[in-house]
Amino acid sequence: MSFPRVLSGIAALLVLLSLLPLSTSYGQQKGPEYVQLKVACTTTLNVNLQTGVDMPDAYVCKNTKVTWKANDHIFFVFFKHDCPFGANGCKEIDNKYPTAGPIASDTFTVYDYGIVVDGKLFDPHVIGGGGN
Predict the structure, then answer these.
(1) Residue 4 phi/psi, 5° resolution?
(2) Against a cut of 0.85, is the pTM above it?
(3) What is the percent of the chain where pLDDT is above 70?
């Protein structure tokens, strides 16, 4: 047996021995992991003709009002299913009455709404509730 073969055999054996004390996670189940997501609370949405509003997915914090800023556009807002602003809070949101709220829900919910800007329909969302 040559010297380089002996050396490479010893090196291979040392590598294998160094891997033995490593723990593996195979067979061990961990519980679910959680992350905390921090986003800025939206209080103003700027109406435009490109996307309807500047934030198509607006995060609105609990107990916060939202104002749609017309920017010289004619618009109206309608919520397709549930209203995040209470039973009567979604009846009239338009360029004359642009403020709605506050959101009082404790449940983190996506509210699908439509906004018609100068006759053109858009489909943004308000994401609200779930605490402050």
Answers:
(1) -60, -35
(2) no
(3) 77
Q: Which helix (H) or strand (E) holds 7?
A: helix 3-19
Where along the chain do its domains lie? Answer: 44-128
What is the Cα–Cα distance from 99 to 128, expressed in whole angstroms? 16
Closest residue by Cα to residue 43 from 128, 120, 123, 118: 128
pLDDT digits (tens, 9 = 90+) for 2-23: 656 655 666 665 665 566 665 5
Q: At the topology level of CATH, where does 44-128 sit?
A: Immunoglobulin-like (2.60.40)
Residue 63 DSSP SS3: coil
| Residues 35-42, mean pLDDT to the nearest whole number | 80
Closest CA to 52 of 126, 132, 121: 121
SS3 call for 31 = coil
The sheet with strand 99-100 has its strands ordered as: 52-53, 44-48, 66-69, 99-100
